[in-house]
Structure formats: C-alpha cells, structure tokens
Design brief:
The protein is mainly alpha-helical and 209 residues long. It has helices at 17-32, 40-59, 69-73, 77-113, 137-158, 187-192, 196-204, and strands spanning 116-120, 124-128.
Length: 209
C-alpha cells in the first residue's frame, strides 16, 4: 500500500479515520435492531438510508492515515523509513476496519430487504420475523442511488492507496499490462465489489430505475 500527496483533506472535526469507524459501527448495529415490523420498520429504513449516505461522506473525506508534514520533515532518513512502515501497518488495519464496516452494512441491508430482524451479539445475525415489513419502492430506489454513488466515491477514495485498473503488473508479470478491476485480488477486490450484493438484491426485487 503506497501513499502520495493526493490524500483527501483531513477533517479535524471527525478525527482520524481509525477512530471514526469504531464510532460508526455501533450506530449501524443500533439502527438494524429497530423492529422489522411496522410502524418501526419505516423508521429503521429511514435511519439506515441516512447512515449509509453519511457513512460514505465521512469516510471518504479522510485519509487512511493522517501524516503531519511538519513532523516528517524533522525525521532522519532512518526515522522516516520506520515511520513509513508504521503508517503502512496502521493503514492496513484501518482499511480492514473500513471494509468490515461496509460488509456489515451490506449484511444488514440484505436482512432489511428480506424483511428480517437483526440480533446483535458478538456479530450481527439476521433472523426471520413474523410480520416483517417490506421496504417500500421509494426507499428502494433511494437506496439504489445511495449505493451506486457511494461505490463510485469509495473507489475514487481508495485508488491512491492501490493499483486499481490501468497499467499495472499483469497476471503473468508483464509490466504495463492492463489488469481489469474485476480481476483484482485482496482488499482491492473488496473495494471494487463493495455493496454489490445490495444492488443484486434490488435488481431481483425489480428496482432498476
């Protein structure tokens, strides 16, 4: 994972990304645990729509690691190398937390779209609920829009930290060969496919507009 000077501007009000994600996760779990029956289900859907939208806005406004330039200038070459290794480690841990949050968001939305409830223990579990309410079409269309725009923002935010598309080392080691995004592996592949399951479910439900 490499860095360049095109990192998003740090938003001090939100703090570093490594501390923002742990604050967003319990909010997601709380919203998912709102009962799946009406009149509560419509409230659950409304909260989740807002959270999903703002989640992307907050996360993509921050760099993986906040690197003070003034501090970097005062370091020796050996110290800079050690600091760079530390930043790489922190970045790897942070991107893992971000991707886990996105995955949990998708699992939660699939439960909602399947008219299921949510039980939160050590990990969230979707449960069948008698009389679980469906998501109205207006909310489904809004969700589709949020997810599509969100995926674009997430991919644009992540590009500086990996080799997404374009020229890269090909599968046979050919330098300059174009590697399609769908052939990426590891965390890059997870970014490319973030929330793909939500879009597939919406398509199954006939939400194509």
């Amino acid at each position: 994972m490499s860095y360049n000077e095109r990192r998003p501007t740090h938003n001090s009000a939100l703090g570093p990304l490594s501390s923002l994600v742990p604050r967003l996760t319990p909010i997601l779990h709380l919203a998912l645990q709102i009962p799946a029956r009406e009149p509560w289900n419509s409230t659950r859907v409304a909260y989740l729509l807002t959270l999903t939208h703002t989640m992307v806005t907050y996360i993509t406004s921050l760099p993986l690691v906040d690197i003070p330039k003034a501090t970097r200038k005062r370091l020796s070459s050996e110290e800079r190398e050690l600091e760079f290794k530390r930043e790489n480690e922190v970045a790897g841990q942070t991107i893992r937390c971000v991707l886990d949050l996105f995955e949990e968001t998708e699992r939660g939305w699939l439960a909602v779209l399947n008219r299921q409830g949510w039980v939160q223990g050590q990990s969230g579990v979707a449960v069948d609920v008698e009389g679980g309410a469906e998501v109205d079409m207006t909310s489904c269309v809004r969700l589709k829009s949020i997810v599509e725009i969100g995926r674009e923002k997430i991919l644009a935010w992540a590009r500086p930290y990996g080799n997404f598309g374009g020229e890269a080392m090909g599968p046979d080691g050919d330098e300059g060969e174009v590697v399609p995004e769908e052939e990426k592996v590891g965390w890059e592949a997870e970014v490319v496919n973030v929330w793909k399951g939500i879009l597939e479910k919406l398509h199954q439900m006939g939400v194509d507009g």
